[in-house]
């Protein structure tokens, strides 16, 4: 399974140079950038673990790329994404969010179906990865 989340999910994996170009674009728009990681990428699981604090007042993407490299080295089998926030509307709004790393093996999701009143079908799903405890998912 290939998880499709974020702005560039339809494109091939971004190189570090392409990630740097997107971060530069965010910085030119005065959007603070943050790095997040998780081993449970369920689409409704929107609050991932933050890698440090959002990086404010940067002019060049080098600092963010260094933090990204540190996060990748610490969590080699996790999903990692870069977020850029736009506060121009008076509230924090996600302007850009994209995956920069995924595990080597993505096990997929289990679709569950239950019948409710009047024989209506209700569907739900859960990732196979959550069958393992946190820290042991994706072969970690």
UniProtKB/TrEMBL annotation:
Listed GO MF terms: ribulose-bisphosphate carboxylase activity
A single BP term in Gene Ontology: reductive pentose-phosphate cycle
SUPFAM superfamilies named among the record's database cross-references: RuBisCO, small subunit
Endpoints of the signal sequence: none
SMART domains in UniProt: RuBisCO_small (SM00961)
Residue span, Ribulose bisphosphate carboxylase small subunit domain: 4-103
Keywords linked to the UniProt accession: Calvin cycle, Carbon dioxide fixation, Lyase
HAMAP family reported for this sequence: RuBisCO_S_bact
Assembly, per entry: Heterohexadecamer of 8 large and 8 small subunits.
Function according to Swiss-Prot or TrEMBL: RuBisCO catalyzes two reactions: the carboxylation of D-ribulose 1,5-bisphosphate, the primary event in carbon dioxide fixation, as well as the oxidative fragmentation of the pentose substrate. Both reactions occur simultaneously and in competition at the same active site. Although the small subunit is not catalytic it is essential for maximal activity.
UniProt record similarity statement: Belongs to the RuBisCO small chain family.
Miscellaneous comment in the UniProt entry for this protein: The basic functional RuBisCO is composed of a large chain homodimer in a 'head-to-tail' conformation. In form I RuBisCO this homodimer is arranged in a barrel-like tetramer with the small subunits forming a tetrameric 'cap' on each end of the 'barrel'.
Stated name of the protein: Ribulose bisphosphate carboxylase small subunit
């Amino acid at each position: 399974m290939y998880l499709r989340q974020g702005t560039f999910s339809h494109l091939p994996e971004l190189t570090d140079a392409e990630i740097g170009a997107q971060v530069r674009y965010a910085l030119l728009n005065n959007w603070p950038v943050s790095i997040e990681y998780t081993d449970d990428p369920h689409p409704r699981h929107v609050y991932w673990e933050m890698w440090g604090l959002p990086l404010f007042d940067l002019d060049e993407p080098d600092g963010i790329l260094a933090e990204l490299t540190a996060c990748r080295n610490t969590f080699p089998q996790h999903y990692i994404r870069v977020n850029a926030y736009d506060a121009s509307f008076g509230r924090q709004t996600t302007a850009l969010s994209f995956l920069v790393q995924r595990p080597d093996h993505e096990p997929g999701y289990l679709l569950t179906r239950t019948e409710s009143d009047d024989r209506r079908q209700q569907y739900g799903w859960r990732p196979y990865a959550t069958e393992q405890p946190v820290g042991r998912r994706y072969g970690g």
